[in-house]
Amino acid sequence: MAARGTADAMTATAMDREAVLVAMTVRDTIAKVTVSLAALVNLLREALADMPIPRRAPNPENNTEV
Fold first, then answer.
1. From CA 12, how far away is CA 61, in angstroms rounded?
2. pTM value?
3. Which residues in the chain belong to E strands, given as ranges?
């Protein structure tokens, strides 16, 4: 009985280690994706900052000035 309890504890420890490794991998992947998205947002922000803002020409039919 004691040997089985020890084996169960060792299995649980191995499973805990695996769970920790999986959690660390997921955390690292999320961190990498977050950094990549932040870099993409910065690139888009820079690209859009240089673009002129288009203005619509006034419509003479809607001109209410006298």
1. 79
2. 0.55
3. none
